[in-house]
Write a structure and sequence with these properties.
alpha+beta, Multidrug efflux transporter AcrB transmembrane fold, Gyrase A, domain 2, four-stranded antiparallel β-sheet, elongated
């Protein structure tokens, strides 16, 4: 019994420590926001989603007319990954980039939705995406459809009409490296393609020996090298009369992600931080009121076990909030709703256990036997209900949109942690009380009906 009590005390102290960490870290973060010095604890704030912290929502139209029908999905997935990498370089926390598939009025069009929490400067948000280059390799146009234009009073051929597109784009780029020409010292950008890109580049150079292959960046030709022989190994060099800083910037932009398809901004929406703050306050208020009402119900109806359940529930909330900070989990309004619902799941498990204990006591069982049988016999119902909840949460997370995933993740975490707190912690605390006598007082403390059977003096 001493061992159980020591274990219960240790768990209680751990719970208090976790709760203190949540409180102090959030307080430290709030002080940093007000201009205080950054501390280690302040580096663990809650990460809020776009709907709570404010930010920018962008919608881009992706031009997929040049993409083969069977490759559209891969191209859009690649585009999403590239933009995510690009945004992450700027330190935007938890950007959400989603592909909005099909169903649009224009043929050959897909759309990309981008949520940038904490970014309310629309121009800055657009710049994050717009600085990502579109890299293309084009070959000479031999179909006679070249277009002339007048520049400074002189007739010149339009460079775009002189070349036609190939399948080789930045989509197949593995990496870009800043190098210097050993003869002239001029900075150049070396490109290394992946295995598929290497095959495409080899075929393009093989088919265009003696001709030029133009390298276009964001629709503008930056280099038009002449092909002397087929190039194997998938390595190309861009020599566009760069300065060293220009070449370094281009390398960084290419490595952060060359867009596999052209995109065009069609919609912007800014969500103010004020709206997000109100939503946070409303969510916190709802959670506190709900917790207090539940705690009051448990204590009044189940008395001593209810009080222990409230302690275990408080530990559960502290553990969940700490996990949200440490993982970290991006909290949206839907995610907070999932967390609040999981609190109800935790209470439901305690209700099943305590009702079973009351029934066992009313039938004449001793307190020790009633507690043991109450937990063991309620476990199967708890297991089945929580398993179905876990399966539902996994399905929602796997197939849902970003909004649904936020709800599913917090709900899933809550259900798993609640099973531990409801079964293990509550049972340990009850056992550590070591109530051996079964009398009117113990029946009152457990809120059960009175039976004269097996009473001890």
């Amino acid at each position: 019994m001493l061992k159980k009590r020591i274990t219960a005390l240790i768990i209680l102290l751990i719970g208090i420590t976790v709760g203190y960490f949540v409180y102090r870290s959030e307080l430290s973060h709030m002080n940093v926001v007000k201009g205080a010095e950054v501390t280690k604890l302040s580096t663990y704030p809650f990460k809020l989603g776009l709907d709570l912290s404010g930010g920018t929502h962008l919608v881009y139209r992706a031009d997929i007319k040049e993409i083969k029908a069977g490759e559209v999905g891969d191209a859009m997935a690649s585009l999403r990954d590239v933009i995510e990498r690009r945004i992450n370089i700027f330190g935007v926390s938890e950007p959400v980039v989603t592909v909005e598939n099909g169903g649009f009025s224009n043929a050959g069009e897909e759309r990309l939705g981008i949520d940038l929490p904490g970014v309310t400067d629309t121009e800055k948000a657009i710049a994050m995406i717009g600085q990502t280059p579109l890299l293309e390799f084009k070959v000479e146009n031999t179909d006679g459809s070249k277009v002339a234009k007048i520049v400074d009073g002189q007739i010149q051929l339009d460079m775009n009409s002189q070349y036609k597109s190939t399948e080789l784009t930045g989509r197949y780029l593995d990496k870009a490296i800043l190098e210097f020409n050993p003869n002239s010292g001029e900075p150049v950008v070396s490109l290394q393609f992946d295995s598929e890109g290497s095959k495409l580049f080899e075929q393009i150079t093989k088919d265009n020996v003696g001709k030029t292959v133009a390298i276009f960046l964001d629709g503008q030709p930056i280099s038009t090298p002449k092909v002397n022989e087929a190039i194997t190994g998938g390595k190309a060099v861009i020599s566009g009369n760069f300065t060293a800083p220009e070449a370094k910037l281009l390398v960084g932009r290419l490595n952060s992600g060359a867009l596999p398809v052209p995109i065009e901004l069609i919609s912007t929406q800014t969500i103010g931080a004020t709206l997000g703050a109100k939503a946070v306050q409303a969510g916190v208020k709802a959670a506190l009121i709900g917790f207090l009402v539940i705690a009051l119900f448990l204590i009044l109806w189940y008395r001593l076990p209810g009080l222990i359940a409230v302690i275990a529930l408080s530990m559960y909330v502290s553990i969940m909030l700490a996990l949200f900070k440490l993982i970290p989990v991006t909290l949206t309004a839907a995610g907070i709703a999932g967390f609040i619902i999981s609190i109800g799941i935790a209470v439901d498990a305690n209700v099943l256990i305590f009702e079973r204990i009351k029934e066992e006591l009313a039938s004449g069982q001793t307190v020790a036997d009633a507690i043991q049988h109450g937990f063991s016999r309620a476990w199967f119902s708890i297991r089945d209900s929580n398993t179905s909840s876990i399966i539902t949460a996994i399905i929602l997370f796997w197939f849902g949109t970003a909004l649904i995933k936020g709800f599913a993740l917090t709900f899933l975490m809550g259900v798993i942690v609640s099973m531990i707190s409801a079964i293990s912690i509550t049972r340990l605390f009850l056992y550590s009380l070591n109530i051996t006598k079964t009398n009117k007082i113990t029946h009152f403390l457990f809120g059960s009906g009175f039976s004269s059977t097996n009473l001890t003096k």
